[in-house]
Design a protein that fits this description.
Layout (H helix, E strand, L loop, with lengths): L3 H17 L17 H5 L12 H69 L5 H6 L4 H72 L3 H23 L3 H4 L6 H12 L17 H11 L8 H7 L2 E2 L9 E4 L5 E7 L2 E4 L8 E4 L5 E5 L4
Antiparallel strand pairs: 1-6, 2-3, 2-6, 3-4, 4-5
Helix pairs in contact: 1-6, 3-5, 3-6, 8-9
Length: 365
């Protein structure tokens, strides 16, 4: 773990993990286990616990809770993605509506101009300008008229062309608006399905936890803390902190300051502040406060932001967890993170290695 001040800080984080249950009752994603498969949360209902649960029983409960909350996190990402898409599609529909209104006004004006030209022609006896020109005997009038005819022909051609283009634009705007409405409707269905799954998984987890007596709940929290601490210790024992020595950027410091100020606020799925957060809501708002817009969901943060080697990470970087990028936290230095763990928990400080790390991304790379 290194020597000197850095070694002391790293050791301090490990001690805090043990004493204050870093990443433990603060997270149901604590164990360095493979990502739970979908079947883990859709299996038959867990049978009622015996009156006095054994350690084996509690480990089964912990594993089941981990799977349920993991699936809720995945569904939350889907919900947030649908919410962001809906905002974007709604904004595009508004802009298209503005274009349709402006286009219709332009088309009406062009039609008025075309009508005026037709009325002017009618007043000259219905003869086109070319015919009237051929009937004149005055050479100078003929030459002047020739210029007017040429200008009139160009104006008429331009007017017809503009009318055609405006009508085509209106048709395209209408098609685009219709397509956006269809996407918006599909997104609403996706969002509703995700919400239903979130609520189902959380309800199942709460029901399972409600079967525990007070002492059993305390023992479960101790078990979660132990698993998280073991994972954090194993991560630190690799000597990873010996390599991590980069200082935070100016924006990174601001992001860390924001996240630190949110400690103690409850996790609420779909929330992005100011009173509650989900995991990616916290990280996206932390970086927004630092003046950097980043994707809303942990999966999109992993897909779109520049990847950084773990040994090169610095405070303010985002650590993405689990193979499906279903969780994200803000690295704050010295082997610690701040994150919004899961329903029933609050924004908390935890060990960066207390969950299986997928990778690190840097918003201000």
């Amino acid at each position: 773990m290194g020597t000197g001040k850095r070694g002391l800080l790293a050791a301090a984080v490990t001690v805090v993990c043990a004493v204050t249950v870093l990443g433990a009752p603060g997270t149901a994603f604590a164990a360095p286990r493979p990502t739970p498969s979908p079947s883990a949360s859709t299996s038959s209902t867990t049978p009622p616990l015996p009156s006095t649960a054994s350690n084996k029983d509690l480990e089964l409960v912990r594993t089941k809770l981990e799977a349920l909350y993991h699936d809720a996190a995945v569904a939350t990402d889907a919900y947030n993605a649908a919410e962001e898409a809906a905002k974007k599609q709604s904004a595009e529909i508004v802009e298209l509506a503005k274009k349709i209104v402006a286009g219709q006004e332009k088309l009406d004006d062009l039609k008025d101009r075309a009508g005026a030209a037709a009325r002017a022609q009618y007043r000259t006896g219905g003869l086109p300008d070319e015919a009237q020109l051929m009937l004149t005997d005055d050479p100078s009038e003929f030459l002047d008229g020739a210029g007017r005819v040429l200008q009139g022909q160009r104006a008429t051609k331009g007017l017809i062309g503009e009318l055609t283009r405006t009508q085509q634009d209106l048709e395209q705007y209408s098609k685009d608006a219709s397509a956006q409405w269809q996407k918006l409707e599909a997104g609403r269905k996706t969002k509703a399905a995700a919400q239903k799954k979130i609520e189902k998984q959380i309800a199942a987890a709460e029901k399972l936890e409600s079967q525990l007596e007070k002492k059993e709940k305390e023992r479960l929290e101790q078990l979660e803390a132990q698993v998280a601490l073991e994972a954090q210790t194993a991560w630190l024992d690799t000597g990873v902190l010996d390599e991590i020595n980069s200082a935070a950027s100016v924006q990174g410091k601001k992001a860390v300051q924001f996240a630190t100020a949110q400690i103690g606020k409850p996790y609420v799925w779909g929330a992005e502040g100011p009173d509650s957060f989900d995991c990616s809501g916290l990280t996206s708002e932390a970086w927004r406060s630092a003046g950097q817009a980043i994707p809303r969901t942990s999966q999109e943060q992993w897909k779109q932001l520049p990847h950084i080697a773990v040994e090169d990470m610095r405070p303010g970087d985002l650590i993405i967890y689990f193979a499906d990028a279903s969780h994200v936290a803000l690295y704050v230095g010295d082997g610690a993170i701040i994150h919004a763990p899961r329903p029933g928990r609050t924004v908390t400080l935890a060990g960066a290695g207390s969950m299986p790390i997928l990778g690190v991304v840097r918003p201000d790379a």
